[in-house]
Amino acid sequence: MTKWSLSTLSRLKSDWLFTVVTRSSACVAAAIVFLVVAFLISESIPAIRQIGVGRFITDASWHPLSDQFNLTPMIVASLTITLGAILIAAPLGISAAIYCQFYAPTAIAVWYRRLIELLSGIPSVVFGLWGLVVLAPIVARLGGSGQSILTASLVLGLMILPTVALTTQAALRSVPGEWLAGGAALGFCRSSTIRRIALPAARRGILGGLLLALARAMGETMAVLMLAGNVVEMPDSIVAPARTLTANIALEMGYATAGHRSVLFVSGLFLIAIVAVSVSLAGFGGAVDE
After folding, report:
1. Which helix (H) or strand (E) holds 62?
2. What's the whole-model pTM score?
3. Is 289:203 a contact under the CB 8 Å cutoff?
4. What is the tens place of the pLDDT at every residue in 17-71?
5. 97 vs 90, 112, 162, 181, 182, CA distance in Å?
6. Rounded to whole angstroms, how far apart are CA atoms 135 and 123?
């Protein structure tokens, strides 16, 4: 009885300690997010008070030295490049995960996964150099200099493809084998089992991977800085040059004065707001599906 009681107390203590550690870690992670947002807000308040939110949309152009602070072209460029990257990475990444999980022989699947993991470890500046030397001249045949929204989207799509592929495969791997076996027992072929059982069951994990990829694409700086063209004007086609919010912050933060610097922090708030809206819409869509 004593041994059983000591064992029970030991397990309870272990469970309590594990609960405290995980809860503390969760609180720290949430606190970091709130502190980052609070820091951005505190640094943005001088610009918001002095300039007003409306002028970030209605000013004629972006010329901080001339008191012009229109962020609209850069917001549009950020959204366009991110959307283009997701449209490229989502079908390729999901297809790669399906092949690796359901079709590839074990030996090939292992090496295929390692290849995707290697792709995820390539620095963004290397992607930028490759895109600048190899891809930009090809895109230039469609018009312009080759440094454009299309070039940035293609390279960014390759950069976030491993995130989509690896998270999708993890979600597919978590689908219970009994469900797949049940589909086979009902006479489903492999493709029908994947479409009707595996993908619907893994949709929340796949959506989470797409959100991670979206956040990575929205926050990417170096490759986009090298490939998008860095022209602050409203793009009229996918081969037009553009400048994203992240590239603008990286280019101008080094020499920005007080008011100009505060506006750049407002750009950071816009980025966080875009990601937050995307996550909220995705969460609402998942809730509706359920």
Report:
1. strand 62-63
2. 0.87
3. yes
4. 888 889 999 999 999 989 999 999 999 999 888 888 888 888 888 988 888 899 9
5. 11, 10, 10, 19, 22
6. 17
